[in-house]
Specification:
Blueprint: E1 8-12, H1 32-36, H2 50-55, H3 58-67, H4 76-86, E2 90-95, H5 101-105, E3 112-114, E4 117-124, H6 133-141, E5 157-161, H7 170-175, E6 185-188, H8 200-203, E7 210-214, E8 228-231, H9 234-245, H10 248-256
Parallel strand pairs: 1-2, 1-6, 2-3, 6-7, 7-8
Antiparallel strand pairs: 4-5
This protein binds carba-nicotinamide-adenine-dinucleotide.
Length: 258
C-alpha cells in the first residue's frame, strides 16, 4: 500500500446525508421515490423531467420544500471533509447531492464540485432569468409554485438542479480531469449508478487507493489491489477513523459548530 498521501479526494452521494434526516432515492420504504409515490407521478423519475415539470410542477416543488437548504444539519462525514480542508489536505470534493450540506459544513467553493447542481440558485426555465433567492425561499416555504417575475414571460422557476436530459454544470466537465491527480479517493454513500458521476471512481489512477465507505458494495471498488472496503454507516466509520488518527475531539468540536 502506498504511503505519504498528499490529500484526499471525495466522491459523495445520498448516503452521506441520510443521518441528517434526508432520505436517499432508492431505499424501498423510506426513499424519496417511495415518498413521492403519493403524488401520483406516472413513474418516479418523472419528478426530474422537464416535460413533466412543465405539465405538473407540484411534485418537484414538494421535493424542493423537503430538501430546502437550512432545514438540515451537516453530518459527521461532511465535517470530516471540512476538517481535511482546514488542514490543507483536501484535493476535491465531488458530490452528487443537491442538499448543499457540503457548503453548510464549510467546505470551500473552490474545492467543491456539485455535479447535479443545488438548491442554492434558480432560474426561469423559459427566459432563463435568475430569480431572487430570498423571495424563492419565502414562496417555497409557503408551498407556492414560483413563476418568473419577468411579466412578459411568467415561466416556471426551477432550482438549478440537473434534470434528466439537461446538461451538467460546466464546473463538472472542467473538474473531471482533476480525478487524474487524486492520490487517495474516498467514495462515500453512493450506489455509483448515475453517470457521468459514477465513472469518476474508475478514472482514478491505478496508483490511487480507493476507499469505499458505504452500506453496500458499489461500482468496481474492490477489484484493484489497493482498494479498501469499509461497509457500514459512514458516520460511525468516519468516527472510528478519526479516533485512530487522534482527531475525534476536533471532529466533534467542528461538528458542534455546524
Ligand atoms: P442512491 O442511489 O440512493 O444510493 C445511496 C447509497 O448510500 C446506497 O448504496 C446506500 O446503501 C448508501 N447509504 C445509505 N445510507 C448510508 C449510510 N448511513 N452510510 C453509508 N452508506 C449509506 O444515491 P446516489 O447518491 O448514489 O444516487 C445518485 C442520485 C441521488 C443523485 O442524482 C443525487 O442527486 C440523488 N439524491 C440526493 C440526495 C441529497 O442531496 N441528499 C438525496 C437523495 C437522492
Amino acid at each position: 500500500m502506498q504511503t505519504g498521501f498528499r490529500d484526499g479526494t471525495f466522491q459523495l452521494g445520498a448516503g452521506v446525508s441520510t443521518a441528517a434526516g434526508i432520505p436517499d432515492f432508492r431505499s424501498p420504504r423510506t426513499g424519496l421515490y417511495a415518498r413521492l409515490a403519493k403524488l401520483n407521478l406516472p413513474y418516479p423519475r418523472a419528478v426530474f423531467e422537464l416535460n413533466y415539470f412543465r405539465f405538473n410542477p407540484i411534485p418537484f416543488y414538494t421535493l424542493t420544500r423537503e430538501l430546502y437548504p437550512g432545514r438540515y444539519r451537516p453530518t459527521l462525514t461532511h465535517t470530516f471533509v471540512k476538517l481535511l480542508s482546514d488542514g490543507g489536505l483536501l484535493h476535491t470534493c465531488f458530490t452528487q447531492n443537491i442538499d448543499t450540506l457540503e457548503r453548510q459544513a464549510g467546505i470551500p467553493a473552490d474545492k467543491l464540485v456539485e455535479a447535479h447542481g443545488s438548491f442554492a440558485s434558480q432560474h426561469c426555465i423559459d427566459c432563463k432569468k435568475e430569480y431572487d433567492s430570498a423571495r424563492m425561499r419565502e414562496l417555497v416555504e409557503k408551498g407556492e409554485v414560483v413563476r418568473c417575475d419577468n411579466e412578459s414571460c411568467a415561466g416556471l422557476v426551477k432550482p438549478d438542479i440537473v434534470f434528466f436530459g439537461e446538461s451538467f454544470p460546466e464546473l463538472l466537465s472542467q473538474s473531471i480531469p482533476k480525478i487524474g491527480t487524486a492520490d487517495l479517493l474516498f467514495v462515500i454513500g453512493t450506489s455509483l449508478t448515475v453517470q457521468p458521476f459514477a465513472k469518476l471512481a474508475s478514472m482514478a489512477p491505478e496508483s490511487c487507493p480507493r476507499v469505499l465507505i458505504n452500506l453496500d458494495f458499489a461500482g468496481d471498488i474492490g477489484t484493484r489491489a489497493d482498494d479498501v472496503l469499509l461497509l457500514g454507516k459512514c458516520d460511525a466509520i468516519i468516527r472510528d477513523l478519526c479516533r485512530e488518527l487522534g482527531w475525534e475531539e476536533t471532529l466533534d468540536r467542528e461538528w458542534a459548530k455546524t
